[in-house]
Amino acid sequence: MEKNGHPITSELLITYIVPAVTGFLKSIALSTGSTLQDTLRLLALMFTYGYQPEVCEALSRDLHGVPTETWLQVIPQLIARIHVPTNSIRNLLEHILAVLGKEYPQSLLFSLIVATKSESVTRQTIAQDIMNKMKLHDERLVNEAQLVGQELIRVAISWPEMWQAAVEEASRQYYTYHNIPAMYEVFRHHHQIIQKGPTTIRETQFMQTYGRDLREAWDLMQQYGKSMDMNVLNQAWDVYAQLFRRFEKLTTKACTLAMEQVSPVLLDCRDLDLMMPGCFGPGKPVIRITKFEPLFYVYPTKQRPRRIQICGSDGKTYQFLLKGHEDLRQDERVMQLFELVNHLLTLDGETFKRHLDIEGYPVIPLSPNTGLIGWVEDSDTFHALIKEYREMRDTQLGIEHRIMQVMAPNYEHLPALPKVEIFESALHQTHGQDLYKVLWLKSKNSEIWLERRTCYTRSLAVMSIVGYILGLGDRHPSNLMLHRKTGKVVHIDFGDCFEVAMHRDRYPETIPFRLTRMLILAMEISGIEGSFRMTCEHVMRVVRQNKDSLMAVLEAFVYDPLINWRLTPAKNGPMFTEGDLGPRRGPQQREDLIVTREETNMLGLAGGGDKNPRAVEAIERVENKLAGRDFRPDQQLDYSQQVDKLIKQATSSENLSQLYIGWCSFW
What we know:
EC 2.7.11.1, 7-stranded antiparallel beta sheet, globular, PI3/4_kinase_cat_sf, protein serine/threonine kinase activity, alpha+beta, Four Helix Bundle (Hemerythrin (Met), subunit A), repeat, nucleotide-binding
């Protein structure tokens, strides 16, 4: 093992690393406040040097002094490393998780269920072993969690949607990468699923409608495997292509479905021991699941998320967004970062008296491509608010885009300078006061309006700075929400972090955060030059003064072996259509990022392994931001200078005019 090119000797271990481990353990044991950053630093040392006997001995000796609830805040990091190849580290992790499973079983269940569905056999086995140990003292609870998790996954992705995604993936493997074995494996896996037979009314209807054609296509595919005749393969693809078009028509409409048809097992669940997802916490009241509502709504967007309702033992009904075809583990880590930022903002006098914080919500992964997101109550997306306002006044939703198209039908292919001229001309011909009017019209009186406007401005500023540090992209109007009562801005969908959106081949984002004309006009009378700039400077000061704490979270975030693959953008992601102003993702969809296997992606773990160059670059970039060296490494800016440059970048017509149309930079 080497550090900065020099081997780690026993003397260095005893002099520096062992005392550091011991110090962190004592600090965590004695702390009365937040211990998240210390715990993450301890885990970093454990994963890097835990294979050394001296370090392992220090950990084993003093680990019992750490309160069990300390580990609750780093469960995602613990679960991510359970298949680390070093026995000593793995034994320590299994011990921590076993203690957690005994004292706080509700906290571990869904995370372990995700791990049991991993590609890694080792990971599956260890997670299943821990769950089997939990069954010894909470068998009913574990069985309920497995049942609910399995059925929610069934509800999240229907068979038509599953097959539509399968044909898309197989098509990409065959036509883009010319990888016939991978294409064949995709089809084989999905045919195995339906060969087990339908278990619900919807699945039975699917097999009655499409079963014969699917069997015909698979028979042709198997014939090709024996004969290697390309004509047979083309015949198989003709059938799959026809099926894909039928699936596509079936999955483009919004609808309300009955739980009885999709998951009768879930509908029959009553008075469970299992707690409401996202409601667990030491000292919090215990809210258990009493039943699932019989109807749920399916949204007509690309991923077709479901809005489900679960009744709790406290008499309240909790709403969740159930998402399929999407890995929510990164969103879960972002919520962890927001908790730390909120803690830091409460410790600073200037930010505390302004009530600055970031609105979070529960994120519960159920599998590597399915999860629950807590519903953000009393909030609407900016897109929905603007659409509603313009429809009431018979104004075309994309009037700015229409003006740009009239002036230059080939706008997307123009050089930068003509784009700027056309972009600014479209802004001059429209007022852009929609959001300003929405805030005014939805307030009962001027006093409430002033309070909402102030809260809107400050919350927008907080997330602008924190989002910039995180490298958050894809901030189109459907990823920003406005709280109806408070006016607070709430961000959703954190799939593009660490400036991934700035490294796209097409339409790379050129702005640090969203600060368009419509957002500025909705602020106070002085616009940017008032509460917004002041709040930005205070938040930038707080995060820079606490950069060590933030780096502890962000390093664990980037080097997590399960999510760092997001740092590698694919070359050929599907693009937005120019006229699409709807609530969809950015031009490169998340499922089109290159995903490396978990076994080969263990970054920062004991035993070495090269670190992803993009991960190293991302961390260095964050360090420069937190040092004020993000514009020039040889020049350190103070808080106000750094904020000023960021605001100028975010409001530059040169930058805004280069973004893809779906980002709605003209709003």
